[in-house]
Specification:
Blueprint (H helix, E strand, L loop, with lengths): L1 E12 L7 E12 L3 E5 L6 H9 L6 E6 L2 E2 L5 H4 L3 E4 L13 H11 L11 H12 L18 H13 L5 E5 L7 H18 L2 E5 L3 H6 L3 E6 L2 E7 H6 L2 H9 L2
Parallel strand pairs: 3-8, 3-9, 6-7, 7-8
Antiparallel strand pairs: 1-2, 1-4, 4-5, 9-10
Helix pairs in contact: 5-6
Bound molecules: adenosine-5'-triphosphate and magnesium ion.
Magnesium ion binds next to helix 1.
């Protein structure tokens, strides 16, 4: 059964001007519950735009988006944010640098709307956040009172990921969330991502320029080119894919 459906989603930025750009061309996509989809494609292919369309960052020119049987095409971004979590490329995005780790976590926790969990930091809540940080296995459980801004990019991304998944979202959108990190930290964050996504069975779309990650993780891979999904490779077919297949594929566009 489909969980998220994009029906002929179309978007042109700056229509009727010299900057006109047809960013999404009649994109249809049927996402099953628990799908972990890696998204690849060249710069400007429309990957971020696709995720932004699902998150509701702009209104569509035509087409519709249905999540769990509910048409959300006209639902504003902050309402969708109650069940869609995102992590971006820039470790500075999505967290408040002058607030502590615990305060950031409390803020993201309360934003998702559990009424009893108002923004305040009781001892219990701190203990809960500490337990959550422990699962990352990065020693961050001792940094609850550190300002977010003093942590490294990798530490911030790990916490961003935790904040995005602490209250299991219906959908997780990752836009090159490891791209700004060194190779070793990239690997650590990818392993944490995979673990959380699998354990919580979170339906996930992950954009990456790292072909090996695109192959290694997830059960489905889509390739975007000039605003269109030009490949959609699932399960066993994805498992058989090699990096060379992907380079050849990308070369042909
Ligand atoms: N809000 C916007 N306003 C105007 N143009 C936009 C907007 N968002 C995206 N675009 C344009 O749409 C096209 C696709 O951009 P998008 O960011 O989706 O590419 P991408 O595949 O994510 O590329 P990259 O790998 O570089 O991140 C680009 O030409 C971009 O300039
Ligand atoms: Mg992008």
């Amino acid at each position: 059964m489909s969980f998220i459906k994009l029906n002929n989603v179309d978007k042109t930025f700056f229509p009727n001007s010299v900057r006109e750009h047809h960013a999404l061309k009649n994109v249809s996509l049927d996402i099953k519950k628990g799908d972990f989809i890696t998204v690849i494609g060249g710069n400007g292919a429309g990957k971020s735009t696709l995720l932004n369309a699902i998150a509701g960052s702009f209104s569509l020119d035509s087409g519709s988006i249905v999540i769990n049987g509910v048409d959300v095409t006209k639902t504003v971004e902050h309402k969708r944010a109650k069940y869609i979590s995102r992590v971006f490329q820039n470790p500075m995005q999505g967290t408040a640098p002058r607030m502590t780790v615990a305060e950031n976590m409390a803020l993201s926790y309360s934003r998702v709307g559990k009424k009893f969990f108002k923004f305040s930091l009781t001892k219990n809540r701190k203990t809960y956040f500490k337990e959550q940080l422990l699962t990352l296995n990065l020693g961050l459980e001792d940094r609850l009172d550190s300002e977010m801004g003093v942590l490294s990019g990798g530490q911030r991304q790990a916490i961003s990921l935790l904040m995005a998944t602490m209250q299991t979202p219906k959908l997780l959108l990752l836009d090159e969330h490891t791209a700004a990190l060194d190779p070793k930290t990239q690997q650590i964050i990818m392993e944490i991502t995979d673990k959380v996504v699998k354990e919580k069975e979170i339906t996930t779309l992950m954009i990456t320029h790292n072909i090996n990650d695109a192959l290694k993780y997830g059960n489905r891979l889509i390739v975007l080119n000039q605003g269109e999904i030009v490949k959609d490779i699932k399960n066993e077919d994805k498992e058989k894919l090699t990096a060379i297949d992907i380079f050849n594929m990308l070369d042909n566009f």
